[in-house]
Design goal:
Blueprint: E1 2-3, E2 8-10, E3 14-16, H1 18-28, H2 31-52, E4 61-65, H3 75-85, E5 93-98, H4 99-104, H5 106-118, E6 122-128, H6 135-140, E7 145-148, H7 150-156, H8 160-175, E8 179-182, H9 188-196, E9 201-202, H10 213-224
Parallel strand pairs: 1-4, 4-5, 5-6, 6-7, 7-8, 8-9
Antiparallel strand pairs: 2-3
């Protein structure tokens, strides 16, 4: 599984953090076009890698969607058209949505998710635990994976009660049919603790830093070979 991240580098300013240019793109209305570009790149990467490695263990690519995306009336049609253009199965696409996006547009998000889910597209709930949690709403929506925000991992690192809470939280989501992925894993100790709590899906610098497409493909190919 690979998450597609957007990075912006300026010749004079250097690397511009996502929390700066993403918010600007949302405020100026450019986020829809930016997301389409990212989705195009993600699908092109997936199609190219799958063609070169037909037996790959890679199961999909995930793309983050902003709350602003859901004001588009033709969002589902646009996304599916891009997926079909590149010849990858819809089930290979994962769309990540934050709790804040759901809170801002609950009915629109629900309709979009149901339409896309019928086509095989999977959904990840991003940054769970950042202050917008509505468990009842989460249970209504077809999330394949719940991604726990890295702040949760940091807050329970040295706390036995925190470990117990995390263990029960993971068990709760698992019992509803969702997998749990923990973000921000940076140490072997954190990985071991998460495994003890029942979490097998992880993301963070311990596993890999963000990489350009060519380097990401090399890492995936290495994993495919069992190296």
């Amino acid at each position: 599984m690979a998450e597609v991240l957007c990075r912006l580098n300026d010749e004079k300013l250097g690397a511009i953090p996502p929390n700066e240019f993403i918010s600007t793109a949302e405020q100026t209305g450019l986020i829809a076009s930016l997301t389409e570009i990212v989705l195009e790149e993600a699908c092109a990467f997936a199609a190219s890698y799958r063609a070169a490695h037909p037996n790959t263990s890679m199961r999909g690519v995930s793309v983050n969607f902003s709350a602003v995306q859901f004001i588009q009336n033709d969002l589902a049609e646009t996304v599916l058209a891009i997926v079909r253009k590149h010849g990858i199965p819809p089930s290979f696409l994962r769309i990540e949505i934050t709790e804040s996006a759901i809170a801002a547009n609950p009915d629109t998000v629900r309709s979009f998710m149901n339409t896309m889910n019928e086509q095989g597209v999977k959904f990840y709930l991003d940054d769970f635990g950042t202050g917008y949690s509505n468990v009842a709403l989460m249970l209504e929506l077809p999330f394949d994976v719940v991604k726990l925000d890295k702040s949760i991992l940091k807050s329970i690192a040295e706390d036995d009660r925190g470990h117990l809470f995390l263990e029960h939280l993971i068990a709760c989501f698992t019992s509803t049919g969702s997998y749990v992925l923990c973000e921000g894993v940076e140490t072997a100790e954190q990985r071991s603790m998460l495994r003890q709590c029942g979490c097998t899906l992880m993301q963070g610098y311990l596993l890999s830093k963000p990489l350009p497409p060519s380097e990401a493909a090399a890492i995936i190919a290495k994993h495919d070979k069992g190296a």
